[in-house]
C-alpha cells in the first residue's frame, strides 16, 4: 500500500550503500554483502511497484568503483551477469522496463550484450521504469553532455545562444526520465557521491542508517512517508 497521505514521489533514486559493512559485521567476505545487496535490489523493485512509484533509479556501480580491488570488481561484475540473465524474465512478466545509464565502454562485451538484450526485451513495459546506473558518474555525465553540445554547435545544428537548461538536459543520459523527486542513501552516509548531480537540483534527500542488504519494503515505505510530509517549494515562498 502507498504512504498514508497518498503523496507518492514519481521518481525515486537510491544510492545503495553498506554492503561491505554488512558483511564485515557478520565476519563474512565483502562478496557476501554484495550478494545480499542483490537480494535487496529485487525486494526494492517489487516494493516500488507495490507502493506506486513509477520511476526507480539505482546507483549500481560508480565510475570511481573501478578503483576497488580487482577481485571485488570481478565479483560485482559476476553478480551483474547473473542478474541480467536470471531476473529479466521476471521483470518483463511484471511490466518493468529496464534501462542502463553510464559508460558502457568500460563494461565487458558480454555484459554490454546482456544489457542490450534486457533493454530490448523490456522496452515496451510501463508498470515501472527501472534504471540502473553502471560505470556512472554525475560529473562525467555532464562533461559528456557538453561534448555532445559542442559537436552539435560545430555541425551547425545549434547556435551557442540557443543553449539553455533544457538543451543541456536533453544531452544527459537521463534525457528520457523525469528528475528524481526523492533520493535515498542507505548506511547512514550523508552525501550524494557524484550521483545525478544535474538532476537532483531540487530533489528531496532521505538518509537512513539501514545498510543496503537490509533494505526493503518497510524502509522504502518509511522514506516515502517522510517525503510526503515535506512541502516542496522549488525556491518559492511557503504557502
Automatic annotation (TrEMBL):
Its EC number is 2.5.1.-. Substrate binds at residues 18-22, 30, 34, 62-64, 66, 68, 185, 191-193. One of its GO terms (biological process) is polyprenol biosynthetic process. One of its GO terms (molecular function) is ditrans,polycis-undecaprenyl-diphosphate synthase [(2E,6E)-farnesyl-diphosphate specific] activity. The active site is at residues 17, 65. InterPro entries: UPP_synth-like, UPP_synth-like_CS, UPP_synth-like_sf. Its cofactor is Mg(2+). PROSITE patterns: UPP_SYNTHASE. Pfam families: Prenyltransf. It comes from the Bacteria. Mg(2+) binds at residues 17, 204. Binds 2 magnesium ions per subunit. GO terms for cellular component: cytosol. Keywords: Magnesium, Metal-binding, Transferase. Catalyzes the condensation of isopentenyl diphosphate (IPP) with allylic pyrophosphates generating different type of terpenoids. Homodimer. Belongs to the UPP synthase family. This is Isoprenyl transferase. It comes from Stella humosa.
Amino acid at each position: 500500500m502507498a504512504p498514508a497521505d497518498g503523496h507518492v514521489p514519481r521518481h525515486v533514486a537510491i544510492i545503495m550503500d553498506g554492503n561491505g559493512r554488512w558483511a564485515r559485521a557478520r565476519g563474512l567476505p565483502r562478496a557476501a554483502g554484495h550478494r545480499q545487496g542483490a537480494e535487496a535490489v529485487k525486494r526494492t523493485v517489487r516494493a516500488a511497484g507495490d507502493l506506486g512509484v513509477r520511476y526507480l533509479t539505482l546507483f549500481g556501480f560508480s565510475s570511481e568503483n573501478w578503483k576497488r580491488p580487482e577481485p571485488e570488481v570481478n565479483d560485482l561484475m559476476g553478480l551483474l551477469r547473473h542478474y541480467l540473465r536470471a531476473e529479466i524474465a521476471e521483470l518483463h512478466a511484471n511490466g518493468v522496463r529496464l534501462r542502463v545509464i553510464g559508460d558502457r565502454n568500460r563494461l565487458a562485451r558480454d555484459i554490454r550484450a546482456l544489457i542490450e538484450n534486457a533493454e530490448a526485451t523490456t522496452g515496451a513495459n510501463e508498470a515501472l521504469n527501472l534504471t540502473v546506473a553502471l560505470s556512472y558518474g554525475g560529473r562525467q555525465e555532464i562533461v559528456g553532455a557538453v561534448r555532445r553540445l559542442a559537436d552539435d554547435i560545430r555541425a551547425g545544428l545549434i547556435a551557442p545562444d540557443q543553449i539553455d537548461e533544457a538543451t543541456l538536459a536533453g544531452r544527459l543520459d537521463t534525457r528520457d526520465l523525469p528528475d528524481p523527486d526523492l533520493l535515498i542513501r542507505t548506511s547512514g552516509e550523508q552525501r550524494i557521491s557524484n550521483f545525478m548531480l544535474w538532476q537532483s537540483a531540487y530533489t528531496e534527500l532521505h538518509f537512513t542508517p539501514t545498510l543496503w542488504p537490509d533494505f526493503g519494503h518497510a524502509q522504502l515505505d518509511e522514506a516515502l512517508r517522510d517525503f510526503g510530509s515535506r512541502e516542496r517549494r522549488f525556491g518559492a515562498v511557503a504557502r
